[in-house]
Amino acid sequence: MDINNEKYKYLYYKYKHKYTLLKKSLNAHYGGNPGGDDKKLSSGTGESGNAKKGSTDPANFSKPPVLSASPPGKSEDQVIVFDFDMTFISEHSKGYPLEHLGPFTGNLGQVYNDLLNDLKTRFKHIFINTRGMEAQILPYLAKQKIDTKLITRVFGANSATELGSEYWPQLKLQNLNTIAKDYKISKRNVYFYDDTQANITEALKEFPNSILVNEITGNGPKLLKYAKALYKNN
User: Fold this and answer.
1) Which domain covers residue 156, as residue numbers?
2) Residue of 63, 75, 85 lying closest to 172 (CA atoms)
3) Containing H/E element for 100?
4) How many angstroms separate the first and last alpha carbons of the chain?
5) What is the pLDDT of residues 119-152, one digit of tens each?
6) 168: helix, coil or strand?
């Protein structure tokens, strides 16, 4: 198995997270492990939480989600953050959706509303973190009959100069930190989707649940369905 393959990374993250929730539930119920001693259930990674030397655990090859308790003052709420072009939508707006994107066809706006409402049952907030012009995102979505009240906040460029910046991986990471700070969310509870590898690589330095959009996740409504299915049982 090629552990660097994105498919296996996603599967590892998905089932690692589910196992951790089960472990927390058992610990809470038994005050330790089901056998009654006072050791907590172990994930098999040693006391430090890191993979054992020589292990074939994917943690040796890719950074897994952070699963420790939230820091003081942080809630257990989770939020989801989407890039815009080729992520939240399936097209590229060149940063200016009001000028470069046409109207949705059929009932696509309602499809988005249904999916966003489903995501809101799982995530406290939905954000857009884009390189595009911030002031154009919500007006464009409103024109497509998407309920923009379902989106807590948009982060984006405020000028053509900022849009053209080469530092967007760092700017997007800065936006993620603003979300974590302003909304009192633990970094491990921020789920970030972006179709640009450089943005994900930078985000993973601090936000372990940053996921590259590709043929597995899809984009647009397919991505929202993917996110819903991945987390609906957690």
Assistant:
1) 79-231
2) 85
3) helix 97-100
4) 26
5) 999 999 999 999 999 999 999 999 999 999 999 9
6) helix
